[in-house]
Design a protein that fits this description.
The complex is a heterodimer of chains A (789) and B (168). Chain A is of the alpha+beta class. Chain A folds into three domains: 22-29 and 484-631, Aldehyde oxidase/xanthine dehydrogenase, molybdopterin binding domain (Aldehyde Oxidoreductase, domain 4); 32-140 and 199-291, Aldehyde oxidase/xanthine dehydrogenase, a/b hammerhead (Aldehyde Oxidoreductase, domain 3, Alpha-Beta Complex); 294-472 and 634-788, Aldehyde oxidase/xanthine dehydrogenase, molybdopterin binding domain (Aldehyde Oxidoreductase, domain 4). Chain A is 30% helix and 24% strand. Chain A starts with 21 loop residues before the first helix and ends with a helix. Chain B is an alpha+beta fold. Chain B has helices spanning 27-34, 79-85, 89-97, 107-122, 130-136, 148-162; strands at residues 5-12, 15-22, 53-56, 59-62, 75-77. Chain B has a five-stranded mixed sheet. In chain B, helix 4 (107-122) packs parallel to helix 6. The radius of gyration of chain B is 17 Å and the shape is elongated. The chains are: A alpha+beta (789), B alpha+beta (168).
Chain lengths: 789, 168
């Protein structure tokens, strides 16, 4: 594949290390909680101990008399100066959600919902006083089961909504019922994808400073989008937008959690404004488990019809999920359901599809954005059925996929679920993954192992990733979500370049990729470029980090900005050198003769003239050595895809699952930095494995979270995780000059499906199949026992 | 209620420190709040995640499970001191070139724990296998990388220290 136009230094495509990672490795990172300012106060929250309870009164008098306590602020006091959150998706008819106060006022609707804040001179003193804030609680029945929540006789959590149905949607393509009954055979399965949470290692954190003289707000926050939060603080607290500055310093993990709006963070800002003092809050681990936006929590069943030639004809997918008591502000938790039914079946050329998603309100934590947003569910459900169908058709699952994938000539296409794809490299990724994993040898090994009573599973799983959502989705929703991103490039007097970008980097390496792209456009090395991000006041307006958009969007904006600055530099150089700009080019930090490559002038010399010696220029020449460009996609999203391979061993005596090997063949368009891309895939896969094998936020029937500690909520640790081998299929997307697609969510999406398929492959000879993640040893033993009965 | 305090004297990163601290303050809060050494991180405060890992009297310890007063008289080394000493400069370079850190929040703890394994190497052990490295690091949680690059970095450092070259 040829490098992009202007790839002068050859930085794009190289595994360049991140210039900004060294300080993190040396303990010199600057995360929000590391920042302290004079007169800073600390907040601890009084939280609901109940899943559902009315607040009949709050007595703060004892707490306010305690050492170090400055003030106790109730939800009602915050509500006086701060508008509530109302997340209603204008583009989703029938969607309803109750207004949510930043801190609960009349009643709490999930355990851990904040109801009051204690402000004190230290966090420890604030926590002491939390216990002395007397809340007169009236325990209400908690609605915990999503199916019971949707039953006609269920008590609505918010009576004004009439029932607990947040939203429902049906997709009908062709006639699924008829096609399923006409099929040569069908397969069906039931699914449960348990609720879990993000577990960013750094808890959510915020430091809000209010200047009462200038009436100006400065916020440091562990968040993926400083622009979004500037907008929220301005509108909810009635502060002119130009007097709000949100800075996102080093972020200790985002994964989508930190694109959500959490009421208590807005409350911290309200309190800073109220008191005229700097106020800091950092969520501890217990609070993170209770009050971080959670994810998934789907139930479903699905059926697939296949004809006599082994061709998939049809699918029916019934999906229900619970999203807590409110729709997550500002991006709508119902997206979990919509993405699941939209992306299901996307790789396959079936014609008849029916899907339904129903979204229920329950008294659990709020479901927000998390890596993959529903797509892992759609892909896993599809891939499990595809494997079952292949087994029933007695066709190898790899062959069965080849037979059923969309063909090259089918593109562009819209899948039966409504997934719009200009192109997908499904066949290439499958071939690549099968080769990488040594599929045939693994099948031989599997057969041999089974003779020895060892149950191994081999799987390939196809996934799609809808990346870099554009305005076609969020525009009509009414949510103020910026789907464009920008980049400013500035030639400094010393000949180095500063880039200011609206995309943010929580460790993905996005800023490094942007430097590579700009470096290539301007013919300079990494040592001559600095990238600045995460400041709503100084960088171009944009979206921050969400939906795997960093390279696809921010990278394209950087490329266009670099290109424009190059043109300006060459124009100025042509004036200085008394030649025409088209005879010049850039390379190695020099302005060069385009035909001979001879160096004519270095960038420092040019910048010197541009900034200090304009007197030497011909009359009328205006040096313009800073340029901004933006990029907004003209598609709903960019379509990335891939295939993952998994090799597992299931101990049928203990139910334990051992991961023997893992592979991924991924197509994220142009790979700007293979080191960063590979690490996104690896990290994403391990998260997907964790979600599928271990992670579960377990509530009891009264709304109590049973495992709110890292000792009880299991996560992948180094000793159980496999090494992962990766191959790339690189199909540059045509929609941008850069051609980069999304990569951030691919690993997680594909890993969930691959693990479901691999474990089922191991258990298939026993006629047992998993139905519920996480795959606990208990669940494995249960499905084996059930099959034996 | 007034906070009960006591005076402690200890060595932190080679410097003598005397401070009056609340008796309930744990070691990492003391390092972060009183000494402004913010390289040690808090992610669980119940001894599971390893982000707070520091060295106390030469041994790796969970800074969140130890009170500051228990460190009275101790020799404490944090990521800042370890980095400055140059003891793990090679390991840190491997972390950098392999992108074995993403958000970086677990990284100081990972470096402290890896340093302990690499120090055992100096006292006669061979290059640890990947399984041994993974076991050694399994008390340190990383949510970003998936661990492989970290294992690679430790393995490469071990190989280069014993002179068998870099296998990657």
């Amino acid at each position: 594949m040829s490098p992009p136009d202007g790839n002068v230094e050859g930085l794009v495509g190289k595994p360049v290390a991140r210039p900004n990672v060294r300080r993190l490795i040396h303990g010199q990172g600057r995360y929000t909680d590391d920042i302290s300012v004079p007169h800073m106060l600390h907040v601890a929250f009084v939280r609901s101990p109940y899943g559902h309870a009315r607040i009949n009164g709050i007595d703060s008098s004892m707490a306010e008399g305690m050492s170090g306590v400055v003030r106790v602020v109730t939800g009602a006091e915050v509500a006086k100066i701060c508008k509530p959150m109302v997340a209603i998706a204008a583009h989703r008819p029938g969607h309803k959600s109750a207004p949510q106060n930043m801190l609960a006022v009349d009643k709490a609707c999930y355990q851990g919902e904040p109801v009051a804040a204690v402000v004190a001179t230290s966090r420890a003193e604030a926590e002491d006083a939390v216990d002395m804030v007397m809340v007169d609680w009236e325990d209400l029945p908690a609605v915990m089961d999503m199916m019971e929540a949707l039953a006609p006789d269920a008590t609505p959590i918010h009576p004004e909504l009439g029932d607990n149905l947040c939203f429902q949607h049906n997709t009908n393509t062709g006639d699924a019922a008829a096609a399923l009954s006409a099929a040569a055979f069908t397969v069906e399965h039931e699914f449960e994808f348990s609720r879990h949470t993000a577990v960013t290692l750094e808890g959510r954190a915020i430091l809000a400073e209010w200047d009462p003289v200038e009436e100006r707000l400065t916020v440091h926050q562990s968040h993926q989008s400083p622009y979004q939060m500037q907008d929220i603080y301005s509108r909810h607290l009635d502060i002119p937008e130009h007097k709000v500055q949100v800075i996102t310093p080093d972020i200790g993990g985002g994964f989508g959690l930190k694109i959500n709006v959490h009421g208590e963070e807005v409350a911290v800002v309200a309190i800073a404004k109220m008191l005229g003092k700097p106020v800091k809050y950092t969520a501890d681990r217990l609070e993170s488990f209770l009050a971080d936006c959670q994810t998934r929590d789907h139930l479903g069943s699905a059926k697939m019809g296949v004809d006599a030639d082994g061709k998939i004809t049809s699918m029916d997918f019934d999906n229900t999920l619970s999203v807590g008591p409110y729709t997550a502000y500002i991006r709508f938790g119902l997206a979990e359901g919509m993405m699941a039914i939209t992306c299901a079946a996307a790789p396959y050329a079936l014609t008849d599809y029916h899907a339904r998603t129903r979204v229920a309100y329950v008294n659990k934590g709020i479901v927000g954005m998390f890596r993959g947003v529903g797509v892992p569910i759609g892909c896993a459900v599809t891939e499990v059925l595809v494997d079952q169908a292949a087994a029933k058709a007695e066709i190898d699952p790899v062959e069965f996929r080849r037979l059923n994938f969309h063909k090259e000539e089918d593109y562009p296409l819209t899948s039966v679920g409504g997934y719009a794809a200009k192109h997908m490299s499904l066949h290439q990724c499958l071939d690549s993954c099968v080769e990488l994993m040594g599929y045939d040898a693994l099948r031989v090994d599997q057969a041999k192992a089974r003779e020895n009573g060892v149950w191994r599973g081999v799987a390939v799983a196809t996934f799609v990733e809808a990346a870099a959502f554009g305005p076609i989705y969020y525009g009509p929703s009414g949510a103020r979500v910026s789907t464009q991103d920008g980049c400013t490039v500035k030639l400094e007097p010393s000949g180095v370049v500063r880039c200011l970008t609206s995309v943010t980097d929580q460790g993905q390496g996005t800023l490094t990729g942007i430097a590579q792209i700009v470096g290539d456009q301007l013919g300079i090395g990494m040592d001559k470029i600095d990238v600045i991000a995460g400041d709503s006041a100084t960088t171009p307006y944009g979206g921050g980090a969400w939906a795997s958009r960093g390279m696809a969007m921010g990278g394209e904006a950087a490329l266009q900005a670099g290109k424009a600055l190059k043109a300006n530099i060459l124009d100025l150089a042509a004036s200085i050198l008394q030649t025409s700009a088209d005879t010049l080019t850039l390379g190695g930090g020099e302005i060069r003769d385009a035909s001979t490559g001879e160096a004519r002038m270095d960038l420092e010399e040019l910048a010197k003239v541009g900034y200090f010696r304009q007197d030497t220029l011909p009359a009328g020449v205006q040096p313009e050595l800073m340029v901004t460009r933006h990029h907004v996609p003209n598609t709903p999203y960019y379509v990335a895809n891939g295939v993952q391979g998994a090799h597992v061993e299931v101990d049928i005596e203990t139910g334990f699952i051992k991961l023997l090997g893992w592979w991924a063949a991924d197509d994220c368009g142009r790979v700007v930095n293979p080191l960063m891309v590979d690490e996104q895939i690896r990290g994403g896969i391990i998260q997907g494995i964790g979600n599928t094998l271990y992670e579960h936020s377990q509530y009891d029937e009264n709304g109590q979270l049973l495992n709110a500690s890292l000792a009880d909520y299991l996560l992948p640790m180094a000793s159980e995780m496999p090494d992962i081998r990766i191959a790339h299929v690189e199909t540059p997307i045509g929609a941008t000059e850069l051609g980069a697609n999304g990569i951030g969510e691919a690993g997680t999406i594909g890993a969930v499906a691959a693990l479901w398929c691999a474990v089922n492959d191991a258990l298939r000879p026993l006629c047992a199949q998993v139905t519920k993640q996480p795959f606990t040893p208990e669940h494995i033993l249960d499905v084996i026992a059930a099959a034996r009965r | 209620m007034t906070e009960e305090t006591t005076e402690i004297s200890l060595t932190v990163n080679g410097e003598s420190v005397t401070h009056t601290v609340p008796v309930r303050r744990h070691l990492v809060d003391f390092l972060r709040i009183d000494l402004n050494l913010t390289g040690s991180h808090l992610a669980c405060e119940h001894g599971v995640c390893g982000a707070c890992t520091v060295r106390v009297n030469g041994v790796v310890a969970r800074g969140c499970l130890m009170l500051a007063v228990q460190a009275d008289g101790a020799d404490v080394v944090t990521i800042e001191g370890l980095s400055r000493s140059g003891e793990v400069a090679d390991l840190q370079m491997e972390f950098e070139t392999r992108n074995a850190a993403q958000c970086g929040f677990c990284t100081p703890g990972m470096v402290m724990t890896s340093a302990e394994l690499l120090a055992q190497l100096q006292s006669g052990g061979g290059v640890p296998s990947r399984e041994v490295i993974r076991d050694h690091l399994s008390g340190n949680l990383c949510r970003c990388t998936g661990y492989q690059a970290i294992v690679d970095a430790v393995e490469a450092t071990a190989k280069s220290r014993v002179g068998t070259g870099d296998s990657v």
